[in-house]
Amino acid sequence: MAQTQAFNLFSPILLLLPLLLLIVLRLFKHNSSPSLPPGPYPWPILGNILQLGNKPHISLTHFSKIYGPIFSLRLGTQLVVVGSSQAAAIAILKTHDRILSGRHVPHMAPSKSSELNKLSLGWVVECNEKWKYLRTVCKSELFSFKALESQACIRERKAKEMVGFINKMEGKVVKIREVATATVFNMLSNILVSRDLISLEHESEDGGMSSVLKDIARLASTPNISDFYPILGPLDLQGLRKKTMELHRRSFNMCEAIIQERREGEGKGDGPDASRRRDFLDTLLLNGSSDDQIETLLMV
Q1: Which of 172-188 are b and which e, b meaning 16 or more Cβ less than 10 Å from the residue's Cβ?
Q2: Which chain regions cross the lipid bilayer (predicted)?
Q3: pLDDT above 90 for 159
Q4: Of residues 3 and 189, which shows the higher confidence score?
Q5: N or C: at which end does the chain have fewer Cβ atoms within 10 angstroms?
Q6: Complete domains list, the chain, with CATH
Q7: Cα(280)–Cα(12) distance, rounded to whole angstroms?
Q8: Element (H, E) at 129
Q9: Which of 193, 197, 192 is nearest to 138 (CA)?
């Protein structure tokens, strides 16, 4: 009888024990987690994905008016902190750039592989010494005042070619967006490798680069469930990583042909002369960069 009474006394406590344990663990986790900027309440599992809608830029602007210039979101299992004002951008990108220099690498990015991560600049996971060296080279050869000034003639020449092409197409249908995109890309390709990679007149004869660029842009703008739930990454449920790897393989093959041609020219003593300014590829070759590294820098 005494045992039965004792069991009846402690049975409610035993039933409540898991609930009490869950509450204690939740309180401990709440106290140990860093304080986050305010933001909309996340739904279980989905987080704030549905609240972003199909026009996330408008939704983010709306959130900034409610929660301030810095707010947090949950996209699936991933925490995202958004800075939406000039002051917030300066604080994140300039004042505290070293502390906040880590970056999210999309699952579809080829540099997720260990080998490409050693060579990439845009999607490298950590800012190591190799990354600092590549950043210095790119800054001095591409983005310094002297470099931008020397590239002005290329931009002017390509702009004139675009205007001339549009004038020549008078009376015909011209897709201005595609012509402008091709012109901007050719400006960049001439700075990098001193040649056009997209033909304004015969787009189908440009070696497929235009098609590759369009497909990469389309895939890059497609929401990837593996980014929201990394545990699903190995499954590649949408096939985006597989498609991206194939596109990068095609673009790398095009770059490989250009690099090989330049190396063969160097072997014959055909370096940059008065008819061709020294480009970014020349700089990388002079610095002893490997073909894999050059291909990755040009395309990633």
Answers
A1: eeeeeeebebbbebbbb
A2: 6-28
A3: yes
A4: 189
A5: N
A6: 2-105 (no CATH), 129-299 (1.10.630.10)
A7: 74
A8: helix 129-138
A9: 192
